[in-house]
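Internal tracking record. Fields below are filled automatically when a chain is submitted to the structure queue. Please do not edit lines marked as system-generated. If the sequence contains nonstandard residues, flag them in the REMARKS field before resubmitting.
Queue: standard
Priority: normal
Entity type: single polypeptide chain
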Amino acid sequence: MSVISESPFSPEEIASEGIKPEEYEDIVRRLNRHPNKAELGMFGVMWSEHCCYKNSRPLLKQFPTEGDRILVGPGENAGVVDLGNGLQLAFKIESHNHPSAVEPFQGAATGVGGILRDIFTMGARPIALLNSLRFGNLDDSKTQRLFKGVVSGISHYGNCIGVPTVGGEVYFDAAYSGNPLVNVMALGLMETQEIVKSGASGIGNPVLYVGSTTGRDGMGGASFASAELTDKSMDDRPAVQVGDPFLEKSLIEACLAAFKTGAVVAAQDMGAAGITCSTSEMAAKGGVGIEFDLDKVPVRESGMVPYEYLLSESQERMLFVAEKGREQELIDIFHRWGLHAVVAGTVIEEPIVRILFKGEIAAEITATALADNTPIYHRELLTQPPEYARKAWEWTADSLPECTLAGIEIDGNLQNWNQILLKLLDTPTIASKRWVYRQYDHQVQNNTVVLPGGADAAVVRLRPLEPCQEKPPQPPLSKGGLQEQEPALAKGQEEPPQPPLSKGGLQEEEPALTKGQEEPPQPALSKGGLQEEEPALTKTTLQEEEPALTKTTLQEEEPALTKTTLQEEAEAIPLFKKAQGRETPELSPPLTKGGPGGVIPGVAATVDCNSRYVYLDPYEGAKAVVAEAARNLSCVGAEPIAVTDNLNFGSPEKPIGYWQLASACRGIADACRELKTPVTGGNVSLYNETIDSDGNPQPIYPTPVIGMVGLIADLTKICGQGWQNKDDLIYVLGIGKSDDAITMNSTENSSSENSEIATSPTLGGSEYLAAIHGIIAGKPPKINFELERKVQAVCRDGIRQGWVCSAHDCAEGGIAIALAESCISGKLGAEVHLGGNSASVSRWDEVFFGEMGNCIVVSVAPKNQGIWEAYLEEYLPKMWQKIGVVGGANSPLRVVSADNLGLIEVGMGDMGDRFYNAIERRIGSV
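SYSTEM-GENERATED OUTPUT FOLLOWS
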C-alpha cells in the first residue's frame, strides 16, 4: 500500500494544504509517522513557495549579496546598509498580490503593515514607503474596483500609521486583468545600537508573544499566495488578513523601546504562516528549539484549535526571545503601550518546534524541516527561447506604416506627431498618477524633500531621530485585547479608522481631492510611476514660493540651504509651503546634528520594472530594469548602493514560466554586478496566474520589480526632472555625436531594430508600439553597461557641481515623452532639434518614441555651458548632444528637424490636460 493510501487524510485534504503527493511521502519519512492535522497544516504553509522558495532558491543564489556598505544581507527580516556617519538604513520590498485580488482594500493595507513590521523588527524606525502596482485595462469596471480598493487600502494604513508614501509606479496592462500586483517597499533608519536579528539563543530563555490577539483571519495565507487564482478564489476571503494601523503604530513604539533595553535576544514578525513560521525560523536560525504553549496566546475568538492558532495570520503580532529574568521589564513596556505581552514559550536545547495545547503535545517537528531543510526543485531549463519569444523577435519597425514629416497612418487615418504625443500622454501607464498619490500622506514626519512627481526618484532627509515618548502606564488588558481599548489612538474607536487627511479622510476611495479637477493642474512625471507631477521642484514653487532647492541654492547663491548657512545657523531645511493644496510647515523640525561640516545627508529610493521588456526578453529586460532603477537615482544626484527585489512570475512548473524566471534572475544578477548594487533580500511571488472557467491559465507578464536605494551626501546637491529656468540649455546624455544625434534610422542605414548599436532607440517593446499600434513585439533595448555607468556618473557629478538644473531619464515613450514631462513638471516650454535632415530620416516615430537605456535629458544654465561641455568631452566623449533650449511659461514644446522643419508643436495646456486627467477621465472621479 502507498503512503497516501495509509494516510488519515484523503488526497484532496492533502492537496488542499498545497502539499504534493511526493512531498507528503517526504513528510512521513521525516516524522517516521503520519502527521496530525496541525502538523500537516504547518508543513503546508512552510513548504509553500511563499515561505520556502522551493522553486526559486537555486536561482537566487547567483545574486551578488556582499559589498562595502552591506551590514545585513538576505536571510533576515530586512537588509541593512551603512550610510556612513553612524547612519544605517533597513529596507525591503514584499508583495501582497493574491490577497489584493480577492479583497483589495485589506489585501493592500495589510501588505503595508507587513513590510513595516519587517523594518522595525530590525530595530529601525520606518521613514518611507513606496509601492509598485499593476492592474488590467483601466477602462474595465473590475480593474477600476481593484485599483480604487488597493489605493484606498495603501493610503489608509500608511496615513494612519504616520509613515509617508513618497513614490512608486503604476502600470496598466491587460496581462494583469485577473491578477493585480501590489508590491510595497519600506525604508527605516536604525534606532537601536545593535541590529536586531531573528535567531533564537540561550537555553531556558523565555519566548514572548507580543502585540495583538490571534483570530481566524488570514488562515493559510501563505498557501493561498502560492496557488493560481481561479473562479473560486473569492471563497478564500478568510485567507486575507485584517489590519489595524493604529495598533501597529503602538507596536512600533513598544518594540523600539523594548529593543533599547538590551533585554531582547531575538525578534521575529508573525507574518506569513504566523506562529508556525516565527517559531520554526527563530529556532532553526539559532540552532535551538522552541517549546510554545498555545494556551498562553491571547485570542479574539473562542473555540480555536491548534491548526487555527498555528496557521492564523492575524496582523500586528511579534515573537521575542528575551533574556531570562528580564521578561517582566519587556512586558511592562508593551502594557504601557496598550498591547498584549505574555511569556508563551521557552528556548530548548533539542532543535525542534514543540507546540503544546491543553497540557498535551499538539505538534512536534524538527525546526529545520520547516524552515530551511525544505524541498528544493531544480527544474530543467529550456535549451532555446520559447516560440512566443522567437516569433516576437522577428518583428521589425519596417512592418509599420511609413512615416513622413506630417505623421503616420493609423487604421486608415493620418495622425500627425502632435496627436501621437498627446495620445501617449493620455495613456494611463505614462500619464500622471496624481489621483493615486494625492490620497497618500507623503509629508508626514516632515522629511520628504522631493515629493511625488518632483523627480525620477523619491528623496528623504536623514536626520537624527528623536527618542520616542512613552505613554503613561495603562490598566491591565482584558482578554478581549486591544480591539476595544486603544489608549492613545482610539478617539473614534467605534467608527472605522480613517487616515488623517485634511479634507475629511477616506470617504470612498478618494479622500483628498473632493474638488478634483477644479484645482489647477499639477506638474508631473510618468514612467508608469508615482514620481510625477508634484510641484515640489518646479520653477514656480522653488523660485517663487520657497528657496529650498532651486538651482541658485545648489550653486550657493541662496541662503536657505547653503553650506555656510548650515554651519552657522544649522537649524532647519525649509520645506515647500504648499503641496497638493494643503498647507505644510514652512520649516522642518530643528536639526540636532548634521553630517560632517553641518551637511545634511539624504536617501533616495525608487521602484522600477518594465514588464513588457522582461516578457519579450527576460534576460535583457531584467538587466534594463536594474539599470533604470540606478539611472533614476542618479537623476536626483544619488549614488546607487543596494537592491531589494520582488520577483512576480507565473507558475515555475511550466517550462515557459521557469525559463522566464531563470533568465530574469540571471539578468538581475549580472546587472547588479555591473552596477555594484548588491541584493540585500526581497520576495518571491510565483503562481501569478488566473485560471478561467474553462481551465485555461493566463499568467501575468514576468515582473521582477527592483527597489533600489541611493545615498545623497549633501541635500543641497539634488535636482528634479522639470526645467528650472528660461533659456537653459538642453542636453541628452548617452546618444553620441558619432551616431549623428538620433538619426541612426536614416535611409542609408537599416532600421535600428536590426542595428547592433547599443545606443540606438528601438520601437521593440515600446509603449508607442503597444498603445498606438496594439503590437507587443520586437526586442527591447539592450544595456551597454560601460556607457550606462559613464552616463550616470556624469549626471551625478553635474548635479553635485551645480551645473545640472534638471535631469530626467528617457524611458517609456522615448525622448519625446521625456521632453514633454520635463516641460509639464517645470511649467516651461522648450525648442528642440531632433534627427537629421528631414529627407534622410525614414522613421520619425523611432526618433521621437523609440526607447533605450543609457539616456538622460538634462538642462544646464547658459553661464555653465563652457565648463559643462568641457567636462562632457573629458568624461563622456562623443556620447552627448546639445539639442535645444528651455522656453518660457507660455511657450509650447516645439521639435524641429536639423533643417528646421517643424515636427511637433504642442501647447502646455494641451499636454497638461491629457497628462493630468487621463486616470480621472477613465474612472469618472477626481
